[in-house]
Amino acid sequence: MNLFGGASWLYFAALGVPILVMGVFNAFVNTPLQTLFHRIVPTSYRSRVFSVISILSQIATPLGSAIFGFAVDRFPVHYLVLLSCIGNAILTIVFLMKGMSRLFEEKRTDNSNGSKRKAVEPVREGIGA
After folding, report:
1. Secondary structure percentages of the chain, helix, strand, coil, to 5
2. 62 pLDDT band (50/70/90 cuts)?
3. Which residues pair with 26 in a beta bridge?
């Protein structure tokens, strides 16, 4: 019995599910990083910093397309998607295990003299500062 075209739906699911998982992983990385940038960048520089971040992300899109364009000529698409998902998952797990504790730890002990200091200082500018 061919269910909705048989193998084509299976192939679609085999490509679609990893891409969906990659999108979820990206949310777990992008949200904390954007929060951190909002906390540490002074208000007067925020538009400039976020413009540079936006430009870099827009440059990465055609660059990634060019790299995958060459790779698709040499390897099957499903292997490239699988490799991308595995790489994305590894980077996300490493970030969540190591980076999150360093980014948002409010107080940490300085080993040299035992004092505590803030890892990320919130910006104090504007009204009421």
Report:
1. 75, 5, 20
2. very high
3. none
